[in-house]
Design a protein that fits this description.
Length: 132
């Protein structure tokens, strides 16, 4: 698949950047002292990194999918490290890294094989809908 086949690559990249910024802010900014149900934090980690990896998988060819997944996992690990180094109200947690990794792995399963680069199919579908 040619990457140039994705007409709105910059828009997709912008969405990915917004998600990276949201995850970064949500991970490093002070949190309100609200008690949440056990496991909700891990679910947030899973869903955030699932969404990030799935979005990233939409704009790459199958051959480069592993690179997107590795970058997403590394980003999660770096965020945990930054929590330990830069914040006083957050702490690094290896179970957060596991939840991040599970989210990335689930996205890899969903986007694996010929489904990588799915953004061009979405764009084609939207073009057909707007033409009719």
């Amino acid at each position: 698949m040619k990457l140039s086949a994705i007409a709105f690559r910059r828009a997709w990249q912008g969405l990915i950047l917004l998600l990276v910024l949201a995850i970064t802010a949500g991970s490093l900014l002070p949190t309100p002292s609200v008690t949440v149900a056990p496991g909700v934090d891990k679910l947030e980690h899973f869903l955030g990194y699932f969404a990030l990896a799935l979005l990233g998988s939409g704009i790459v060819a199958r051959e480069r999918l592993w690179i997107v997944m590795a970058r997403c996992f590394a980003f999660g690990a770096v965020i945990e490290l930054l929590q330990a180094l830069l914040t006083s109200n957050r702490m690094a947690d290896w179970t957060d890294i596991v939840a991040n990794g599970l989210g990335v792995s689930a996205a890899w399963v969903v986007a694996g094989g010929d489904r990588a680069g799915w953004a061009r199919h979405v764009e084609a579908w939207l073009a057909r809908r707007s033409a009719s």
